[in-house]
Amino acid sequence: MLARRTLWLAAAVAGLLCCVSLARADQAQINTLNELFGALQRCWQAPALPRGASGMQITVMVSFRRDGSIFGKPKITFESDEAGDDQRLAYRVAVMETLQRCTPLPLTESLGGAIAGRPMTLRFDDRRHSPQRPTEKRAWLSPKIL
After folding, report:
1. Domain segments of the chain: what residues?
2. Is 78 helix (H, G, I), strand (E, B) or coil?
3. What are the Cα distances from residue 86, in Å, to 90, 112, 120?
4. Is 63 helix (H, G, I), strand (E, B) or coil?
């Protein structure tokens, strides 16, 4: 009798956990391009740079399949000019690691069908600005000399 109750309780708990995990899976589905870009942005981890490094911009062209996996090979199409070779290599690796870590993306059927096989351009902007602010010009408060 006790074993039967335990079995029923275990089945009920398993059913609840299954329903909760299915609800979470539905919420995690990516349905718009903004959600897609947001998901990739959350996966992005900029490389560690030495103190004072300016960072850079890098753009990659990539296509996805209906299931959210990468179709073909991603291609770097732009890198900031002011970056050095070591910094460029670090950013290339960071972009490819981001794509590997995030894919396959949990796309809805409609978004997957809409973007399947189409090249998308993704820009990763990690420019770091110096903490110094430019000096303000006071054209409106010119001193009077008598």
Report:
1. 29-125
2. strand
3. 6, 36, 26
4. strand
